[in-house]
Write a structure and sequence with these properties.
Largest interface: A-B, 24 and 28 residues
Low-confidence stretches of chain A: none
Structural class of chain A: mainly beta
Radius of gyration of chain B: 13 Å
Mean pLDDT of chain A: 92
Largest sheet of chain B: 7 strands, mixed
Radius of gyration of chain A: 14 Å
Structural class of chain B: mainly beta
Helix content of chain B: under 10%
Number of helices of chain A: 0
Helix content of chain A: under 10%
Largest sheet of chain A: 6 strands, mixed
Mean pLDDT of chain B: 93
Number of helices of chain B: 0
Number of strands of chain B: 11
Strand content of chain A: over 45%
Oligomer: heterodimer
Chain lengths: 112, 113
């Protein structure tokens, strides 16, 4: 079993839809949770970062962490064709660790 | 700032050849890392460094060597390339403080024949 599981998609939605992307994980030591966006043939770029449990909102993006269920989510409101990309979740343990574990990524396509 | 730069962008090698993938950053980041990205496997950590002279292994280190002689540079060496090393390689850097953002380079697409 992988430490981080993520549905690879592809996920196709119409423009304006609310998108929900999810990851599950098995390591209860993970404390830091991140979402990256990766456009085709580009490097990943950080979208959201959350420490421990809770919600964080940034514009159209909301990240949720439920440590009791070992489940994290990224919501995209009013999705746009420019949101079409692969979304990767990533996580790591305490501040003394430097190994980031990434999900496989979910490919999202927002149709105009 | 140029951020994280990687060279070359593309490379084709024959089995058994050696090469070095270059990575440099101009943000004075202590932490630098190398990942490989394969379809269905996501990003997997190869090696990382938390400062000049300090390196450690990640999830998939076999077949790769690294060194960190300066803060700015973190080259990745393939001593004897194998077809299984065909992949897209990304370098990333960040400060070492907990949760700090990793900045990724544009990637190197490597094919080993």
């Amino acid at each position: 079993q992988k430490e981080v599981e993520q549905d690879p998609g592809p996920l196709s939605v119409p423009e304006g839809a609310i998108v929900s992307l999810n990851c599950t994980y098995s390591n209860s030591a993970f404390q830091y949770f991140m979402w990256y966006r990766q456009y085709s043939r580009k490097g990943p770029e950080l979208l959201m970062y959350t420490y421990s449990s809770g919600n964080k909102e940034d514009g159209r993006f909301t990240a949720q962490v439920d440590k009791s269920s070992k489940y994290i989510s990224l919501f995209i409101r009013d999705s746009q064709p420019s949101d079409s990309a692969t979304y990767l979740c990533a996580m790591k343990g305490t501040s003394g660790t430097y190994k980031y574990i990434f999900g496989t990524g979910t490919r999202l396509k927002v149709l105009a | 700032n140029a951020g994280v730069t990687q060279t070359p962008k593309f490379q084709v090698l024959k089995t058994g050849q050696s090469m070095t993938l270059q990575c440099a950053q101009d943000m004075n980041h202590e932490y630098m890392s190398w990942y490989r990205q394969d379809p269905g496997m996501g990003l997997r950590l190869i090696h990382y460094s938390v400062g000049a002279g300090i390196t450690d292994q990640g999830e998939v280190p076999n077949g790769y060597n690294v060194s960190r002689s300066t803060t700015e540079d973190f080259p990745l060496r393939l001593l004897s390339a194998a077809p299984s090393q065909t992949s897209v390689y990304f370098c990333a850097s960040s400060l070492v403080q907990a949760g700090d953002t990793q900045y990724f380079g544009p990637g190197t697409r490597l094919t080993v024949l």
